[in-house]
């Protein structure tokens, strides 16, 4: 762990998002009481900050119902916004837990190329290692030699075994080998990388369905988790990806990466409100320990600019 604390990194990572919201809210509250026009402006500001129409409407509702005992000013509004964002995030904040019996717990990781999938797998492996779980990786994206190579480099660095097939090989057969190897070795967690070819929905769907069939034959419970990795810099497109991957892959939870590179981190709130899928962790940097289970209250306060 680097010297900087995790909350400092979340704060630093979400700084742009927080500034965006502050800029959008600046100067809106000008009267002693919030009137409808001001509430409309606040709602617009929240939508402009990528929180999405549903979360924005919910926060508006909350503000309209607030009594603001100590007078209304920007700080009071931000405080109420933070509280409502926390109320949206709390129910979905769920770390990935290793509960599978028999072992291994099979975690299928999906997401479009470039979303940060490979790095996230490495960070997840590290997170599990820190909890004393044994981890094995499967390079299931057999379409790109680079993806296999990159995961291999991470596996070496972390000292975890990795099962690879030949480039162009059948992903389901590599996954099969992975589950067998992890079972034989008694590994606690098996993390499976998959191809992210969203351009060809049919092929992707067939491939994931085949992986599921093969997994199910070895262990009816597997995959235990289907984790979608999203790149926060994609803003509203990230929501579309949830929609599509839910349909093709039966997503069980989300990890949002690259929150440090964007002012669009509000999309985390939109995703939570719109889909209610568990959010397992957030990524705020490229280093191995830049991924942690997320603390909804901390994130809410940072986004709203009251931390
Ligand atoms: N700033 C920042 N960069 C990240 C984060 N997560 C991943 N990255 C970077 O994003 C880039 C893409 O990450 P990969 O892990 O290669 O993503 P991928 O989805 O596997 O992409 P392909 O291998 O191209 O399919 C890399 O340069 C990572 O270092 C994050 O939380 N913050």
From TrEMBL:
Q: Which reaction does it catalyse?
A: GTP + H2O = GDP + phosphate + H(+)
Biological process GO terms, please? SRP-dependent cotranslational protein targeting to membrane
Looking at the record, the residues that make up the AAA+ ATPase domain are 103-250
| Source organism, top-level taxon | Bacteria
Single GO MF annotation: GTPase activity
Localization annotation: Cell inner membrane; Cell membrane; Cytoplasm
Listed under subunit, the entry gives: Part of the signal recognition particle protein translocation system, which is composed of SRP and FtsY. SRP is a ribonucleoprotein composed of Ffh and a 4.5S RNA molecule.
Q: What is this protein called?
A: Signal recognition particle receptor FtsY
Taxonomy-wise, where does this protein's organism fall, top ranks first?
A: Bacteria, Pseudomonadati, Pseudomonadota, Alphaproteobacteria, Sphingomonadales
Q: Which gene encodes it?
A: ftsY
């Amino acid at each position: 762990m680097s010297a900087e604390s995790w909350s400092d990194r979340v704060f630093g990572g979400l700084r742009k998002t927080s500034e965006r919201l502050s800029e959008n809210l600046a100067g809106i509250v000008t009267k002693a009481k919030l009137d409808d026009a001001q509430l409309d402006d606040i709602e617009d500001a929240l939508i402009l900050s990528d929180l999405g129409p549903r979360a924005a409407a919910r926060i508006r509702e909350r503000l309209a119902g607030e009594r603001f005992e100590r007078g209304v000013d920007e700080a009071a509004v931000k405080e109420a916004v933070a509280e409502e964002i926390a109320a949206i995030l709390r129910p979905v904040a769920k770390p990935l837990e290793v509960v599978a019996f028999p072992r291994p717990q099979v975690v299928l990781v999906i997401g479009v190329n470039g979303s940060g999938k490979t790095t996230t797998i490495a960070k997840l492996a590290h997170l599990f290692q820190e909890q004393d779980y044994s981890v094995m990786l499967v390079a299931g994206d057999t379409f790109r030699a680079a993806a296999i190579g990159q995961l291999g480099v991470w596996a070496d660095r972390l000292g975890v075994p990795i099962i690879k097939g030949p480039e162009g090989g059948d992903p389901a057969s590599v996954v099969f080998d992975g589950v067998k190897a992890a079972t034989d070795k008694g590994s606690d967690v098996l993390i499976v990388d998959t191809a992210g070819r969203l351009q060809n929905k049919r092929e992707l769907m067939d491939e994931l369905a085949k992986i599921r069939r093969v997994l199910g034959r070895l262990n009816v419970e597997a995959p235990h988790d289907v984790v979608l990795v999203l790149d926060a810099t994609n803003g509203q497109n990230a929501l579309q990806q949830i929609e599509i991957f839910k349909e093709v892959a039966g997503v069980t939870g989300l990890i949002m990466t690259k929150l440090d590179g964007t002012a669009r981190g509000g999309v985390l709130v939109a995703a939570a409100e719109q889909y209610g899928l568990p959010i397992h962790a957030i990524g705020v940097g490229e280093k191995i320990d830049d991924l942690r289970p997320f603390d909804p209250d901390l994130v809410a306060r940072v986004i709203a600019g009251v931390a």
